[in-house]
Amino acid sequence: GQSLEQPSEVTAVEGAIVQINCTYQTSGFYGLSWYQQHDGGAPTFLSYNALDGLEETGRFSSFLSRSDSYGYLLLQELQMKDSASYFCAVNTNAGKSTFGDGTTLTVKP
Amino acid sequence: DVKVTQSSRYLVKRTGEKVFLECVQDMDHENMFWYRQDPGLGLRLIYFSYDVKMKEKGDIPEGYSVSREKKERFSLILESASTNQTSMYLCASRDRDRAYEQYFGPGTRLTVT
């Protein structure tokens, strides 16, 4: 089966940089996706890595190391509106996605 | 813009009732999913469907069934609701050629009393 680990909570101040890590164990690994979910809202897609390295999308970047079964989401120039839960999700060649339990990010002024 | 809609935002049902949760997407996506989300447990996959009339069990299918008679609609059925099925239910869809990106509906918060 699949398992993912990510920290349950992270706190940072406005303007700072925060990194949310995700380690996974899976068979048939295809790629790692990241989603953001605000309280009471639906998860929305942020970023995806299929190959090793860094993908940058504005203030958000995501990194993957397939050999280490590890990835992270990097959020720069934090804003209050970035307070949300962040989920990593492993995509497999069987077509399924397995989500981590989520990291609650609190941004303080 | 992809839109995924779910039939109810909040639902209260009694133990033993048959419950239907409906999901509709408007982007002609082949793949559709049902998850439940509980505090501290992330999103757990109940069932998914690659295409019309196709269905596959996810990680926690017990107590649930699904129906996909039309491409745009994916229904989740609780044959006999139980209190441990009280949860947030999220539907998602995706294009089969962009398998890494799912679009989620707003969710249905189901309470079984």
Order of helices and strands of chain B: EEEEEEEEEEE
Mean pLDDT of chain A: 94
Largest sheet of chain B: 7 strands, mixed
Largest interface: A-B, 24 and 25 residues
Helix proportion of chain B? under 10%
For the biggest sheet of chain A, the summary is: 6 strands, mixed
Low-confidence stretches of chain A: none
Total beta strands of chain A? 11
CA-CA gap between termini of chain A: 41 Å
Specify the overall morphology of chain A: globular
Structural class of chain B: mainly beta
Indicate the low-confidence ranges of chain B by residue numbers: none
State the shape of chain B: globular
Radius of gyration of chain B: 13 Å
Query: What is the radius of gyration of chain A?
Result: 13 Å
Mean pLDDT over the residues of chain B:
94
Structure description:
- The complex is a heterodimer of chains A (109) and B (113).
- Chain A has 109 residues and is an all-beta fold.
- Chain A has strands at residues 3-5, 9-13, 18-25, 29-37, 44-49, 53-57, 60-65, 70-75, 84-92, 97-99, 103-108.
- In chain A, the strands form 2 sheets. In chain A, strands 2, 4, 5, 9, 10 and 11 form a 6-stranded mixed beta sheet that branches. In chain A, strands 1-3-8-7-6 form a 5-stranded antiparallel beta sheet, with no helix packed on it.
- Chain A is globular.
- With 113 residues, chain B is mainly β.
- Chain B has strands spanning 4-6, 10-13, 19-25, 31-37, 43-49, 56-57, 64-70, 73-78, 87-94, 103-104, 108-112.
- Chains A and B meet through β4, β5, β9 and β10 of A and β4, β5 and β10 of B.
